[in-house]
């Protein structure tokens, strides 16, 4: 073998050079990634997808409702105080009925109690305020539930995927074959990512709605105190 190589060099013969094998890059789409996860992975991802759709629906439905509740004419309280000061209780109640907002409903409840002790008026407004806050927070707690349950369901898929991978490895007679383990590993990784996405989106949506709701609650409290202070002013 060595003599042949030396003869080839002396005669100038061309020495065959082994061709380099071209590396083939394999791409994987999201659909292929999900389909490679097996039935268990596809089921869990389907559940997480439905949870994500529900979270998005609740977020936008509540966001529009809270924005509508926060809209009120800046001159509303001035008109109310003017009507009350001149004894036009019916006109004040009519104005509250025409404005569809939590603030107007609270003030309307207080106007309906005019003539009673101030403590009774305050109690009526507080009770009405609790109902308004309950209405603003409708279904918002579902976002908190989804934000906590999403990652947990994703981790459940991770555990199932790892169990499947170990099961396939045990049945392979101790030889490690990546193609055998691929299905279980895909299930483990895809469900984890999907669960975290659902949890992050739901958590951010929940906190944003809480901040928006707190602003409306502050608005209701400020206008209620302004109304009670006006009633407490000496005539």
TrEMBL record:
InterPro entries associated with the record: ExbB/TolQ_transport, MotA_ExbB_proton_chnl
Subcellular location: Cell membrane; Membrane
Keywords, sorted A to Z: Cell membrane, Membrane, Protein transport, Transmembrane, Transmembrane helix, Transport
Record field: transmembrane: 39-60, 140-166, 186-206
Keyword check for Nucleotide-binding: no
Domain MotA/TolQ/ExbB proton channel: 100-221
Membrane topology: Multi-pass membrane protein
Keyword Signal included in the entry's annotation: no
Pfam families: MotA_ExbB
Principal subcellular localisation of the protein: membrane
Family from the record: Belongs to the exbB/tolQ family.
Name the UniProt record assigns to this protein: MotA/TolQ/ExbB proton channel family protein
Organism field: Mariniflexile aquimaris
């Amino acid at each position: 073998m060595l003599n042949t190589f030396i003869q080839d060099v002396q005669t100038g013969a061309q020495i065959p050079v082994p061709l380099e094998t071209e590396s083939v890059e394999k791409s994987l789409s999201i659909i292929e990634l999900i389909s490679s996860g097996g039935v268990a992975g596809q089921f869990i991802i389907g559940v997480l997808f439905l949870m994500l759709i529900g979270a998005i629906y609740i977020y936008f439905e509540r966001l529009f409702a809270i924005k509508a509740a926060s809209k009120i004419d800046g001159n509303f309280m001035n008109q109310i105080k003017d009507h009350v000061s001149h004894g036009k209780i019916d006109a004040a109640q009519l104005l509250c009925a025409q404005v569809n907002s939590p603030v107007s409903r609270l003030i309307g409840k207080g106007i309906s109690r005019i003539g009673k002790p101030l403590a009774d008026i305050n109690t009526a407004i507080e009770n009405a305020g609790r109902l308004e806050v309950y209405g603003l927070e409708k279904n918002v707690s579902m976002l908190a539930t989804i934000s906590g349950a999403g990652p947990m369901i994703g981790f459940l898929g991770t555990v199932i995927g790892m169990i499947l991978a170990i099961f396939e490895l045990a049945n392979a007679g101790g030889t490690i074959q990546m193609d055998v383990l691929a299905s279980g590993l895909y299930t483990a990784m895809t469900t984890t990512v999907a669960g975290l996405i659902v949890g992050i989106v739901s958590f951010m949506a929940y906190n944003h709605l809480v901040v928006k709701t707190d602003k409306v609650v502050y608005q209701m409290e400020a206008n209620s105190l302004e109304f009670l202070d006006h009633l407490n002013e000496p005539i």
